[in-house]
Amino acid sequence: MKKLVMAAALALAVSGTALAQQGPRSKQKQTVEQRVEQTTTKLKETATLSESQWTDLNAIYTTYYKDLDALTTGGTRPDREKMMELTKNRDAKIKELVGETEFAKIQKVESANRPARQDGAGRRPGGARPGGGTI
To answer: How far apart, in whole angstroms, are the C-alpha atoms of residue 125 and residue 129?
Structure first.
């Protein structure tokens, strides 16, 4: 009986750990239109733009998300350089459209909404391990 209880506890611990490792992957991927709408809704809380600027901003984000989707199709990890280039081009177009002040507001909102990296990169300078040890 004692062995049965221990086996059940071990199985529960293993299954709980396995489920915790999966993370939030069960979410369905949003469409380009949904992402553009979500982005502009967040931006409208802080940025002050004219209607024509909002229309142009929607077009910029639509192009950006479509190009981003094109990079991420195929199941392989997209090239970081190409993704950075897309973001750089998007930011240049936005800055030209809205000006320096509003662009700074947009950047602030975007950086707050950017998900934290799951690999832990950027948390410790030089990728140092806690305690200074190596593998």
So the answer is: 9
What pTM does this model have? 0.63
Q: Are 24 and 82 in contact (CB under 8 A)?
A: no
Q: For residue 84, give both structure tokens.
A: 């950075």
- Residue pair 42/61 in contact (Cβ under 8 Å)? The answer is no
Domain ranges of the chain: 52-113
Q: How far apart, in Å, are the Cα atoms of 43 and each of 49, 85, 87, 131? A: 10, 22, 17, 41
So what's the pLDDT on residue 14? 61
Token pair recorded at residue 81? 């350089």
Give the span between the Cα atoms of 94 and 98, in whole angstroms: 6
From residue 28, give the alpha-carbon distance in Å to each of 34, 35, 62, 124.
12, 12, 19, 32
